Amino acid sequence: MVPFLNQDTPFPDPPTALSEPNGLLAAGADLSPERLLLAYRQGIFPWFGANEPILWWCPDPRMVLYPEQFEPSRSLRKTLRNGSYEVRVDFNFAAVIEACAAPREGQSGTWIQPDMVEGYCQLHRLGHAHSFETWIDNQLVGGLYGVAVGGIFFGESMFARVSDASKIAFSHLVAHLRLHDFKLLDCQFHTAHLATLKAREIPRHTFLNEIARYRDRPLSPGPWSLHENAARDTPWQSLSHLDTQGQ
Fold first, then answer.
1. Where do the domains of the chain lie, and which CATH numbers do they carry?
2. Nearest residue to 135 via CA among 174, 179, 103, 95
3. Which pLDDT value is given to residue 222?
4. Span 138-192, pLDDT tens digits
5. What are phi and psi of 51, to 5 degrees?
6. pTM
7. 233 Cβ contact partners less than 8 Å away, ≥ 6 residues apart
């Protein structure tokens, strides 16, 4: 049995999460901005289906990406160079999360319930949740969203309506995190797609140590914007230039 939380109940210690299902820690409480930020500061995230209570998770192992270790593949570099897309940040957060909530091919439902949408839109309005968006011909074709706490970005979900659209947004996110000295990108669970983007699994205790180390770094809430050169350069061209200048 997992504990059922009331609005004022603190989270259990993350290492007490179940091993089956992997990482289930607690149920209940709410999706207020205060509760969500408290969860992320402890490495916990909500994930539940329709007609289920709010379920809170902290799996072991944890899928993460260290921004400084990411290198796009040759094919992705070619896509990033072709310039037929535009990346916008925090331009239409609601549209991104609604697109992520839409059922995927072969699925009948979604884990992003209406109260999840509202909870994260509130976090966005408060300047804690952010979206990276791929646009082609003024149409939203891919993107992702997540939550920033200190020096950590907690990725939540991504979607693509055309090939590589989510990878484009992801690449610009990682470039932004590197430019602003973020230390960790949380990807939650292992997927083959994330593995192709150089994410890897680490033990939960290592992940929790990283959270404790970086969550209190100064970070002012508010909307994000792309680096000034991002409109004409790929993020990796911009980063290469900045790295050279700093040597």
1. 4-61 (3.30.70.3550), 63-245 (3.40.630.70)
2. 95
3. 96
4. 999 999 999 999 999 999 999 999 999 999 999 999 999 999 999 999 999 999 9
5. 65, 20
6. 0.91
7. 241
